[in-house]
Input
Amino acid sequence: MTPFVADVLIPVGKVVAVILYPMVMVVVMIWLERRVVALIQGRLGPNRVGFQGILQPVADAIKLFFKENIMQRQADKLLFNISPVLVMFSSLLAFCFVPLGEPIRIGSYTLTLWIAESPVGLLITLGLSSISVFGVIFGGWASNSKYPLMGALRSVVQILSYEIPIGLTALTVVFIARSMDLVEIVRRQESSGVWYGFLMPLSFVVFWISAVAETNRAPFDLPEAESELVAGYHTEYSGMKFAYFYMAEYAHMVLVSSLVVILFFGGWLPPFPGVKAFAFLHVLPGSIWYLIKIMFFLFLYVWIRATFPRYRFDSLIRLVWKWLIPLSLVNFLAVALVRYLL
Amino acid sequence: MSRLRRFLRMVFLLDILQGLRVTLRLYFSRKVTVQYPEQVQEPTPRFRGILRLHRNDQGEPLCVACKACQRACGTNCFDIEGNRTKGAKLMRPVKFDWKLDRCSFCGLCVEVCPTSAIRFSREFRLTGTDKEGLLFHLSEMYLAGESLQEHLCAGCRRGGG
Amino acid sequence: MPESAADRPELRQAFDALTGRFPDGVLSGGVEKGELSVRVGKDALASVLAFLKDEQGFNAVDDIIVLDNIRASGEGGKRFTVLYQLCRFPDFLRLRLAVDVCETEALDSAVPVYRSADWAEREAFDMFGVRFEGHPGLCRIYMPDEFEGHPLRKDFPLGGRDVASEAPRIYSRESDSLQALERQSPERGIRHSPTDTHPWNSAKGIKEIDLNMGPQHPSTHGVLRLKLAVDNEVVLRVVPVLGYLHRGMEKLWENLTYTQVVPLTDRLDYIAALSNNLGFVLAVETLAGIEVPRRARYIRVVLAELQRLASHLAWLGFMANDIGAMSVLLYSFEAREHVLDLFEEYCGARLTVHGIRIGGVPQDLDGTLVARIRTVLEGIPKHLADIRALLDENRIWKERTVGVGLIGAGDAVEYGLTGPSLRASGVPWDIRKDIPYSSYEEFDFDVPLGRNGDIYDRYIVRLEEIFQSIRIVRQALDGLPEGAISAKVPRVLKVPPGEVFHTIEAPKGVLGFYVKSNGTDKPERVKMKSPSFINLQSLEHMCKGNLFSDVVGILGSLDIVLGEIDK
Output
C-alpha cells in the first residue's frame, strides 16, 4: 500500500463515492416514488421508458435540463442562485460522517466506508443537515413575492420545530450506546445483540415522525403541496434550479433514512445479530443489509405519502409542540432512569 | 367506542396502521389498467362512435334524402339535397355534407331516420391533423376503418407523406 | 308528480292571506297545476316579500326569473316580468310572484329579506338589465364588467355582437399588486365592505392580503376564480368570480325545439348528466300533460340513482385529493368507472348521456343489463369500505374536517343551501321524499342527516346517500313493472301555452327548471335553477374565520360543478 494510494487515492475515492451514493439513491428514489405511488393507487406508473420505466429519471432530468431558466426582475440574484446550491450542499455535506456500510477487508487492509469517524459524528451530521434551512429562507426571500416568502417561513418553522424531537430521541440512543459516534453506535448494537429500535420503540416512532416532517414530506408537506394556495419556497424556480431543490429533498430523505437505520435498526447488522441460530444471515454482506433497510425506509416514506391526507399548518405545529416534544422529553427521562437503575 | 379504546387507538396509532394496511393490500392487487394502444378495450354495441351511412344487403344506399335528420339535429351538422331520377321509386341524396366538429353525438338523427340509413359506428379514433377532414361528403360518409383514418389525416398525406 | 299536480288547500290559504293583507298590491293570482302564481304591483313588492317571509314562513327564494315581453312593451305594456319563485319548508308550498317592470324602472331588492336572492338578482341585472335598488353590490356576474348590452334580451342577436377588446394590463410598473389593479377599476366585481375604504386598513390593526385563487387551479373544480382577503392566515372575505364557463345556454335553448334542448342539458352538470336531462324532461312533461308509463318511470329512477352514485363517487375523490389523500381519488374513480361502463352499455355514452327522452326512455333494460347493474352494485360497497377505512377514523382527516366550514341549520336555509350540504346541517329536506316525482314515493329509503354542518358531516351524509341509492336501485330492479318504455309523443312536440317550475333532487341539490311555452315547438323561456350556483353563495359564510388552507376543503365539500353554475 503506497502512501500515494493510502493518502490520496483512497480518500478521494471515498469523497467521490460519498457524493455519488446519494445521487444514485436520488435517481432510484424518483423512479421508486412514482412507481410505488402508482401501484398503490391501482395504476401502473412509468413503464414505457426503459424496462419497467427505470430510465424515467433520466427522461425527467433531460426535461428539466432543457426548461427555461426564469428569474424575476426584482429577485435578489445572488441569493436566488445560491439557495438551491445551499440546500443540496448541506444534504451532501452531512454524509461525511455517515457510514455507508460495513468495513471491507482487502487482504491486510480494512477499507472503511466512511470519510471520517468522529466521537461526535451524530451531532455534526445533524448540525450540517440543518444548514438547509438557510437555503429555504434565501429561496423564499430572494423570490421577492409574498407567497413563496410565506411558504418559506412556514417551511422554516416546521423544520426548526421538528429538529427538537429528533435531537431528543437521538439522545436516548446516545445514552444507551454511550457514544455519539455513528460507527460506534452500530458496534454497540452488535455487542448488545439487540437493535435499539426494539429496545426503545417510542424513540423510534417519534424520531420517524419528526424525520418525515423535517424533510417536508407528506403528510407534513403543506408548504409545498400543489393543491394548496401557496406553493412554497420553490414556486419561482424552474428548470435546473428546481431540479436541484427536488434532488436535495430526496438526498435529505436518504440521509434521514440512513440515520434511522444506524441509530435504531443496527446499521449494517443482520437481524438478531447476537443469536447463534441466525448466524447464516451473515452470508449477505453487511452493506447489503444496510441497503435493504434503507430501501425499506424509503419505501415507507412513499407508502405514507400515498395513504394519508395532509396536515394543516397549525395542526402540524400543534402536534410537535404539544405532543412530540413533551413525549420525547418524557421518553428521555424514562430511558435515563432505566439506565441509571440498571 | 369506550374512552379507553379510543385512547389506546390514539396512542398506538391504530387508525394510521389501518390506513397503511389498506394501501399495502391494494399495492399487491391486480391492476385494471388497459395499456393503450397495445391493448384496446372494445366499446359496447350501443357505443356512440362516429355517424356512418349504410347500404342494404343489395348494396343500395338506404338514405332517401328525407332530411329528417337535418330537421332533428340541434347543431346544424347536416346539409342534404336529394332528387329522384326519372323512373326511380325513391329519392336519393345528391349532396350529403356532415360536419364532425359540430356533432354533439346526441343521437336524435339516428332515432328519426325512417330507413336506419344513418347509424352510430363504434369508431372512436377520430383525431386528425386537417380541419378539412372534419367535413364529410356523401361518399365519405360510408368510409370506415383504415380509409376513415386516412380521410381524417388527409393533411399528412398531402405533400407526399 | 301526483302530489304536486293536485290543488292543495294551503295554497288557497296563502293566497287569501296575501290578498287580505295587500288588497291593492296584489293584482291577480291563481292556483294552477299545483302552483300558486300571484301578480303584484311594483311598489308593493318589498312589503309583500317581507310579509311572506316573516308571517307566512316562506324561507327561501329558489330562483329569480326574468321574462322579456318585447312584444308587449311595443304595445304599451311593461317590458320585463320578474318572477320570484319562493318555497316554504317544511310543507313545501311553492309560490311564484310576478312583477312587471319596464326598462327604466328599478325594483326593490329582495336581498334585505332573502339572502339567497343575492346572485340571482345579479344574474337578472347581467342578462336583462333589470336594476334592483338596495342590492349590496349590483354588478355583472357572468359577463365581463366592460360588456355592453344584456345578452338574454330578445333583441340581442343569438350569434352575439363583435366587441372590440383591448388586451388587459396585467402588469403595471408602479406596483404589481392586486390592490393597484383594484384601484384602476373599482367596480371589478369585488365588494369592499363599507367600513374599509382601503385594503390595507392599518387603522384597524388588520393587515389584509388579497389572494387570488385563479381560474386555473387544481382544486377549484372547474374554472372558478376566488378572491380571498386574508389576515395572516384567517380568511376575512371570499368573493367568487364566475362566468369563465358561461356558454349562453339559456339563449340557445330559446332557439331549439324541446327535443333538441334535452341533449344540451347534459352539459350543465356534466358529472351527473342524466339528472339534468330528467329535470328538464319532467318540467316539459308537466307542462304538456304527458303521462309517462310506469316502467319508464322506474327505469328513470334506476338511471338517476346510478348517476347520483357516480356523482358522489367523483365528489369523494376530488375532495379527498384536495385535502391530500391522493389515493382515494383513484379508488373512487375506479368504482365510478364501473357505473360509467353501465351507462355506455345502456345508451352508448359515458359522460354526456342523453339517456332520457320526452315521454319516456330511449332503450329498455333487458335481462342482461339488469344483471350487469346488479353485479356492479355488489362491487361498489367493497371500494367504499376501503375508502372508509382510509378516511373515516383517520386522525389527520378528522383534524381537517371536523369543526371546519360550519354552517348552522338556520343559516343554511337562509342562504338557500340545498342538497346534501343542507342535510348535513340537520335540515331534512329531500325533494324525493317531500315532493316526489317519477314514482319515488313507491320506494323505501332513508334520508341521511348530519348534525353540525361541518365538512365531516357532509362527507358522511354523501357516503350514506350512496348506500341509499344502491338500495333504491335494487328495489326498482326487483319491482320493474311490465309495459311500454315511452308515451306516444308527436315527432314535432308543440306544448300548449303555460309555465311551470319543476324541481328534482339532483346529486348536488335541488335542480329546478322553469319552462314557459307559447304554443310553438320551441320554448319561450327556459330558466335553470342550478343548485351549485345557490350553494356557492354560502361559501363566504362557511370560510369566514377559518384558515385559508381550509378554503380548499370547504369548497370541495360543497360539491360544485362549474358547468351548472355558469350555464
About this structure: Confidence is low (pLDDT under 50) at residues 157-161 of chain B. Residues 51-157 of chain B form a domain with the Alpha-Beta Plaits fold (CATH 3.30.70.3270). Residues 81 and 141 of chain B are 15 Å apart (CA to CA). The helical segments of chain B are 3-11, 14-27, 68-72, 108-112, 145-152, 154-157.
